[in-house]
Design goal:
The protein has 462 residues and is of the alpha/beta class. The chain contains 15 helices and 22 strands. The strands form 6 sheets. The chain has a 7-stranded mixed beta sheet, sandwiched between helices. It is globular.
Length: 462
């Protein structure tokens, strides 16, 4: 059987319950590059049953052995890195160098980090006259997005497996091909049958069936806040645990003492990365009024360099959505200083790298997640005004602060209502907790805090 003809359930590729398929389209040339089955509730039920059957043995497997299995999985991902990068480039449109460094490289690092954590984590501890056990929560439903298609799978599957959970993954329908490569990697790494299962399909069908399934103990979802609310409501009906990584509208605060050119250039690069399809992107640049005009000029010049350096957005719907936000920004009085709503190419789902000046905090483009290569530059009067603007959205996922004095930047960052803040361009850390405040989500991914999401606690008193 060819991989696209079935689902990966209980350690093997099996025929899908239905006949419908989902076409996977290359967003660069708009050509169909493959198909996957459109999973049904019947497929989901088979996958969950397989995960439940495999749970007792996997949960009882010594952590050192689970660590060895994860290390083997990491090693397989290393050998398949080129194929992974090429596949993500084909289905997401990401430039190949970015796919190699990020879409293939980061999941390898994350898988390796959990191989180490599984071997060293204190699954049992003593406090007073009690012994506290940290045990797997059970069967995990991992519903993942299209923007970082392999990273988001590994960021859920690796800690779940390290904890002793079993997993059913439902990947995004736009980018399911790399998920199938991952299933092959799991198989090659020798994980026991049923520990990992994959069902492709549409969110309202397969995704909802998975979230609703009574055999699932935890739903880990990354995606829009609207869908996150729906999943939370479903889980509440069953008193089921959720981990939600949702939207963002992160502020990049450039304090007056900062190196303005560096802060602006790094900020523009951050927004344009992955064609703006990053939930933690610093899409609001906050600049003091005395340096505002200079920052706008620098940002416009920087954005102009990205015209041929970024890929398309994922599909026609997303292209229309992003261009609609750009038009909304113009209609509300913001000034386009780079890019604009017109498509830069006749073919492909491309959006021009766009920078807005004269943006006010109440504008739609300053409040809502656009998920495209669009930057809004806002002016602030003083530090308190900057803090008010930075915290003035329903989101709180990420952010950045720049200042000549690191202590000054840290002091400001501590008052930001957001899950993580980069100080003067701080580097991504796959061991640091990732997740948001407010409507950006519930729970954390990555590192020891990500592992804790997949554990439940039992105390024994003596």
């Amino acid at each position: 059987m060819k991989a696209h003809d079935g689902m990966y359930i209980d350690g093997a590729w099996r025929p899908a319950a239905g006949q419908d398929v989902i076409e996977v389209v290359n967003p660069v040339d708009e050509q169909v590059i493959g198909t996957v089955p459109a999973g049904t509730a019947e497929d989901v039920d088979a996958a969950v049953r397989a995960a439940r059957a495999a749970l007792p043995d996997w949960a009882a497997t010594p952590p050192a052995e689970r660590a060895a299995r994860l290390a083997a999985l990491r090693d397989v991902l290393v050998t398949r890195a080129d194929e992974i990068a090429e596949t993500v480039t084909a289905e997401l449109g990401s430039p190949l160098k970015f796919s190699q460094a990020v879409h293939a490289g980061v999941p390898i690092a994350v898988a390796g980090s959990y191989a180490e954590l599984a071997a060293t984590y204190a699954f049992e501890e003593k406090t007073g006259n009690s012994v506290v056990h940290h045990e797997p929560v059970g069967v995990v439903a991992a519903i993942t997005p299209w923007n970082y298609p392999l990273h988001q799978i590994v960021a859920k599957v690796a800690p779940a497996l390290a904890a002793g959970c079993t997993v059913v993954v439902k990947p995004a329908e736009d980018t399911p091909l790399v998920a199938r490569l991952f299933a092959d990697a799991v198989h090659e790494a020798g994980l026991p049958a049923g520990v990992f299962n994959l069902v492709t399909g549409l969110g309202p069908v397969a995704g909802q069936a998975l979230a609703e399934h009574p055999g699932v103990d935890l739903v880990s979802f990354t995606g829009s806040t609207a869908v996150g609310r729906r999943i939370a409501a479903i889980a509440a009906g069953q008193v089921k645990k959720v981990a939600l990584e949702l939207g963002g509208k992160s502020a990049n605060v450039i304090l007056p003492s900062a190196d303005l050119a560096k802060a602006v250039n790094v900020g523009v690069a951050n927004v344009m990365s992955n064609s703006g399809q990053t939930c933690s992107a610093w899409t609001r640049m906050l600049v003091h009024r005395d340096r505002y005009d200079e920052a706008v000029e620098l940002a416009a010049a920087a954005a102009a360099k990205y015209g041929d350096r970024i890929g398309p957005v994922v599909n026609a719907k997303q292209q229309d959505r992003v261009r609609g936000y750009i038009e909304k920004g113009v209609a509300e009085g913001a000034r386009v200083v780079a890019g604009g709503p017109e498509a830069p190419r006749e073919q492909g789902y491309f959006v021009a790298p766009t920078v807005f000046a004269d943006v006010t905090p109440d504008m739609t483009i300053a409040q809502e997640e656009i998920f495209g290569p669009v930057l809004s530059i806002l002016k602030y009067e003083d530090e308190e005004d900057a803090l008010r603007i930075a915290n003035g959205t329903v989101y709180g996922l990420a952010g950045a602060v720049w200042a000549a004095d690191e202590a000054e930047a840290v002091a400001f960052a501590r008052r930001m209502e957001t899950g993580q803040v980069d100080i003067n361009g701080g580097r991504f850390n796959p061991l640091a907790p990732f997740g948001g405040y407010k409507q950006s989500g519930v729970g954390r991914e990555l590192g020891v805090h990500g592992l804790a999401e997949y554990l439940q606690t039992k105390s024994l008193q003596f």
